[in-house]
Amino acid sequence: xxxxxxxxxxxxxxxxxxxxxxxxxxxxxxxxxxxxxxxxxxxxxxxxxxxxxxxxxxxxxxxxxxxxxxxxxxxxxxxxxxxxxxxxxxxxxxxxxxxxxxxxxxxxxxxxxxxxxxxxxxxxxxxxxxxxxxxxxxxxxxxxxxxxxxxxxxxxxxxxxxxxxxxxxxxxxxxxxxxxxxxxxxxxxxxxxxxxxxxxxxxxxxxxxxxxxxxxxxxxxxxxxxxxxxxxxxxxxxxxxxxxxxxxxxxxxxxxxxxxxxxxxxxxxxxxxxxxxxxxxxxxxxxxxxxxxxxxxxxxxxxxxxxxxxxxxxxxxxxxxxxxxxxxxxxxxxxxxxxxxxxxxxxxxxxxxxxxxxxxxxxxxxxxxxxxxxxxxxxxxxxxxxxxxxxxxxxxxxxxxxxxxxxxxxxxxxxxxxxxxxxxxxxxxxxxxxxxxxxxxxxxxxxxxxxxxxxxxxxxxxxxxxxxxxxxxxxxxxxxxxxxxxxxxxxxxxxxxxxxxxxxxxxxxxxxxxxxxxxxxxxxxxxxxxx
Length: 531
Description:
Layout: H1 6-13, H2 16-60, H3 62-88, H4 91-127, H5 135-154, H6 156-164, H7 168-191, H8 196-222, H9 236-271, H10 273-309, H11 313-340, H12 342-349, H13 357-371, H14 377-384, H15 388-399, H16 401-410, H17 417-441, H18 445-467, H19 469-473, H20 478-500, H21 503-530
């Protein structure tokens, strides 16, 4: 079995659908633990720092949060090669890929640090609008961001290995550990007599260092291909291929990161740090709800790439189309009632809701909802290795957001216009993915509409129409919130099963549910007999 050690033997004997189901279950258990802690941490930090310092942190160190997308994109590049090699069953090639990935990401980390350091000089020379008394703290936070950036990037090869092996149990443990660290930091910051903003930035940067060491120790002990021998396992052609692939993938990701961070600066320049606080709340809400769909995708993406590596494109296409639908349903199930009841939810979550937070959150969730029905298509395109055309077009689309928003603000537009522009961008990116998955992968556009887009649209529109009824009849409060949640649960789940899934997906879903219940029942019986 080579690289398959004790903990992974049972997993490799499962079918792809069963592996995705088991891994998704593990990740959702993780999310159930972390999501409420994360919400509590945000409440503590916002209360401890205040709206102004919280806005400064989201402005200066907001790139740390955006780097999770950078990390995901680069891990996806390394994971693509690793998963493809696993699909081929080539262990030696995996060793080459790991060592090339180490060198590649160390180079990227150094380059990014230099770029961010140079950018910092100009940002603090009049670009950012920060109160004079907090300028020093903002500069210190910026340096902590550099540290976190460096260690986040060089941890990418280890993330790629873990994800390629579909080891979601360790991913869950690592995520829970990180969340507990953040809770401890939030509690410490609320009681410390030192500068709370600087203390928070320092401790958040230290988390990235600790997590890297944990990943390194685990991977070197767990996987035989994790051997750092650059002289022995290095090929220039492979390095050039991975550099080209990562470069094009990084182009699109970097453009989106720069644009999103530029959006923060733009809002800060025209409207001040309080609007950045509202933006930070919107990012928190959107990120938490995205985790419901991203959790499933984390388990599914390796299967898509391995299928292409194993020369089974039809399985890859089926996994991609089904993944799009499930991703949309998982996100929409929570997003629809959240959008409807946003004022009430923010009022019970936060002691004081920043101005523009409600409209920012609603528009941000709607923007993400638009992207879900095509979210796996980039993975399908990436599995073939032909990411250049899609990356160029997406990068151009992203680069248009800031100048258009700047002109709108100069003409007197209100802050929410930037989220309206983001929605238009999301629609454009969706059309781009549909076009390129057709041209590169050969997936018919008619099949995309029939199997994914039309079912998703029907489920979302009918569910929203039903859920909005209590909003029209009842006043804001717990009764209306629970009424919306109940109607959403009944309507959405019913529509998803009978309208949103095709016959094969219904059959697979039923088999997986029966299999899970059987295994749980067996475990319970065994435990009872032992007792």
